[in-house]
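ARCHIVE CARD
Drawer: 12
Card no.: 0347
Subject: one protein chain, sequence and derived structure
Cross-reference: see card 0346
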Amino acid sequence: MNDEKIIDYPVAKCPECGQTHDYKLKAELEIVILSIANTPQTPKTTEITFTCPVNKKPFNEIVTNPPNYKIIGIADPKDEHTSTDDVKSEFDDWVKNSRSIGIDYCKTMLASSSGAVAVYFSIMTYMMIALRKPLG
């Protein structure tokens, strides 16, 4: 499974042309390991260089990172299409295999619980015999 996601980001007022533009940003999951001695030092913002679609001039803007994610750049249109198709195909596979996964789980649990009952009675029988013997 992919740990990246596509985020819609509107620029309210472009510093180059003054219009509103919509961009797609790529963000990756950021794993933070906490310890007793320190706190996570993850940046809450990322500076991204956008290109104005009207006059093709670049401009920088500071973007707030979503929780548990870090923005890594502007997404390509093909990245967005691929990620949506991957999720859909993964969901379709899950739907196809969900019945067989459930049946396998039930078979395993039935065999395990049947064996556990026999082990439980064996241990209880042993304990009853062992407790009847006098100490010493």
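Annotation on reverse: Residues 1-75 form one domain. The chain has a mean pLDDT of 80.
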